[in-house]
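Let us work through a complete example step by step.
Step 1: write down the sequence.
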Amino acid sequence: MMEYLQYAPVASVIFVLTIACTLWAFNDENIYVRFILNPYTVSRGGRVYTVITSGFIHKDWNHLFFNMFSYYFFAFQLETMIGHWQFGVLYFLSLILSDLPSIQKHKEDIWYNSLGASGAISAVIFSYIMFDPLAKMGLLIIPGLEFPAWVFGGLYLIYCHFASKHARDNVNHDAHLFGAISGIFITIALNHDVVNQFISKFK
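Step 2: predict the structure and record it as tokens.
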């Protein structure tokens, strides 16, 4: 753990805090009430802080595992690529931006809630893709099936767009989609040469 703290301190702290807060919420229902994002409330100026805190709690063990598994494989490497403060900006800004469409979409739905770090983690993954578009990526649930990262990213965006319009699975696909898009644009804003680097990988 000390090694991770040395070369990726921001990613390490976020990783530990996310697991700790989720475990806390598993054992205290009041934490869910205080941390979860309710668009109806936020759109009316209440509990605005939950655009951040909702990213540190998860619904169940599966939700936590899949998010942290994805985070583990990309976040620590990405911080070494873009720098410590840049990683922090990317993560927290994308966490906020990925929630904005959900707040707008569900602002009249008093019963709708959202939680989890998926939006920010999507941003981390897509930022990584900008730096290494030819890396191999796949799905944990389908071992052995891998694509170049840029292909995987394109398919992911198409799926999220479709799912956000048609799915009824209680998954916030809007956060996934806009988190990924936020990750791309924030990465470009922080690293102006990344587009040229991306293109050069295909030459």
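Step 3: interpret the result. Residues 62 and 173 are 17 Å apart (CA to CA).
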